[in-house]
Hints:
The chain is about 30% helix and about 20% strand. The chain is α+β, with helices and mostly antiparallel strands and about 425 residues long.
Amino acid sequence: MYIEKEKELPIIARTQVLVCGAGPAGMGAALRASEQGAKTMIIEMQDCLGGVATAGMMSHFTGWSSSKILTQIQKRCKEKSQLLAGMDQENVWDMTINQEVMKIVLNEMVKEKGIDVLFYTVVCDSIVENGEIKGVIVENKSGRGVIYADVVIDATGDGDVAARAGVPYYKGREGDGKMQPCTLMFKIGGVDYERAVFPESFETEVVTEKGELQHLANELLPFPAGHVLLYRQSTPGTVCCNMTNVIEIDATDGQSLTKAVFVCRSQIEPIIKFLREYAPGYENCWLMSSASLIGVRETRHFEGLQTLTPEDILEAKCFDNWVVRYASFNFDVHNMSGASLDETGVQKKWSQPNAYSIPYGCLLPVNVENLLLSGRNISGKHLAHSNYRVMPIAMAIGEAAGVAAALKINQSLKSLRDVNVKEIQNIVGE
């Protein structure tokens, strides 16, 4: 046991809205809060904005929502890709992500809005007084310091701010606490698009001369890898691979997260060898790059004023106090004991065609004022989380959080609970 010496910490900044985490949820929150006139700041542990969409090298946006910010980002990325991507973008799927282009676009968007950004900065603790969050303690190359804010939006994914503020939570699946596997995305070049196959779901079977591809992968790749997910990119001959896999990881634990990266990176070479041998069009593929941020699907579920359930999604429920509409995806539960889809997951055979909504209460923690949950850390059950955790829905949640924060500040309201939900709806539903 070592007792850290008490010392005074410098105040780094004072802002109205502090967004912790610059992934899709954080970007939605920051851009909307600033748009509504609130002085806004983002802190981010990576060297870029976008989170799993950029540093995580995600291949594409999956699922859908009412997010207007996402539409803006897609449009700007497609325009900039005409210059930077090296191929005609007209036939590129709008949901495809060019990670390097998006980094530039997001930088431009926050600069245009006057949002302050601090990279390479992590949250160490939350400052809570009398049940109200006042700000956070952060650390970066300058050392430790304090950032005060009128409203803090936790868009860290894992809910680091909320956890340190004392918001009740549980991890993973109800009953056994198991969490979905982690994946390190990587990109390959040298793919012959004329002959290449692109299995885009666990349930997509690809029959080749040497056998069915998913079956071969499950048989030949090192456990717990064993599925084939390959996605077209917006640059010539390149493919994003969602094929590394590590189970029984707690991404809120430093040693466990480190193990996850080692396991996933060790699988890249055998995966490429497998693709060269068994996947048509991949005979000459080569490793281009791998993500600097591992993809974490699930950790903490926080207790909010309302909790989204699987039944809410299956019934396509429209809450009176909705702040996200048109949320649409499936129960994307990855196997917690190996490769492919978990027995509780449903992808290709998803039969619920209607979009659902997310209520404001899922963003409000039960016991801490001036704090908003944003993204996959909102209040929801494990199975529901497997649906709303995807980026377009997370971004829409972030937008709602950013608008709510700005309304609270602009109207000098005592509590975030006093925000008129109809006003949030009028703005995000435009």
